[in-house]
Amino acid sequence: MAVVTLTKANFKETIEKNNFVIVDFWAPWCEPCVAFSPTFESASDANPDIVFGMVNTETDPEISDYFEVAQIPGILVIRDQAGIHTQVGEIGAPGLDAIIKWARERDMSAVHEHYAAEAKKQH
Length: 123
Fold this sequence. Notes:
Shape: globular
Number of strands: 5
Structural class: alpha/beta
Oligomer: single chain
C-alpha cells in the first residue's frame, strides 16, 4: 500500500477508519527525515494491512503540535485509535520492523475495556 499524506483534512478520518496506523512526522529540510522515507515506504509495501502516513510538520503544524512532536523524525504508532508507541530520532529498517512486530503483538484488551467503560458513562 502506498504511503498516505496525512493533513488536517484527512488525519482524524484516517485514524478512525483504520485500526493500525503508523505516522511519520517529517519536514523537507530535515535530512534524516528525507533519508528515512524509502525505509518507511518499504515497510508500507511489506505491511499492506497497516496504513502508513506522513505528516509534513511544515504544512500541517497543528497535527504535530497536538501530539507534542518536539523533534523529527518522529514515529507514532496508533492501534484502535490509541497511540501505543512513539519513536523520536533516526531509526533504520531493523528498528522499524521491530516496532511493527511489537505493535502487532501488543495486547489491546485494556484499550478496548477503556473504550467500553467510557461508552457506558455516556449512556
